[in-house]
Amino acid sequence: MGGRNARNEVYRGIRASIRNNGQAYGYSVSITGSFGLLTTTTGTPSGIEIMLFGFGAAAAFSLLEILATRDFHRSLEEESVIVSAFGVALSFLSVGITLGVAWLIGELLPGPEAWPVAGALASAIYLLLAGVQLAVAESASRARRGKTRD
Question: How far is Cα of residue 8 from the mean position of the Cα atoms in its chain?
Fold first, then answer.
């Protein structure tokens, strides 16, 4: 593996990594950053508060999955690689807004109730905004192709 071939293989690997990790990466940054921001505003959490944060995050994720699959009666479609890449490229917006909301929750609810609320909102806001980003990316892709999606 040398020269141009090596560079092509590296680019191919990067594309595969982005394709397979993009949305999960944004979610991971959002949920971890939200936890960290909440810690700076409310102080070190107790074990129960950590569990409440996780429960709130998981509950919101589950609720959105139930809604998106229409109570598990509809499959989740995959986006094209280009649409997914464009959507992920916009993730600085969803990550940034999610982190801002987590910080705000910590400022407005300085007690133990901040933990489940921030966990739930971090999950819900990131997932909803990521969905909007993918919709924008799909619309832009459709306009570029000059077609509509069936």
Answer: 29
Question: Measured between alpha carbons, how far is 30 from 16 in angstroms, rounded to an integer?
Answer: 22
Higher pLDDT among residues 4 and 118, named by residue: 118
What whole-number distance in Å separates Cα of residue 16 and Cα of residue 12?
A: 6
Count Cβ atoms below 10 Å from residue 104 Cβ, excluding itself: 14
- The answer to whether 90 and 136 are in contact (CB under 8 A) is yes
- Closest among 37, 14, 19, 17 to 95, alpha carbons compared: 37
DSSP-derived letter for residue 70 is T
2 membership: H or E segment, kind and range: none
What separation in angstroms does the CA of 107 have from each of 40, 41, 80? 10, 6, 39
Tokens encoding 20: 């397979």
Counting residues of the chain whose pLDDT is more than 70, the rounded percentage is 91
pTM for this prediction: 0.82
Contact (CB, 8 A) for 56 and 117: yes
Mean pLDDT lowest for which of 39-48, 113-122, 128-137?
A: 128-137
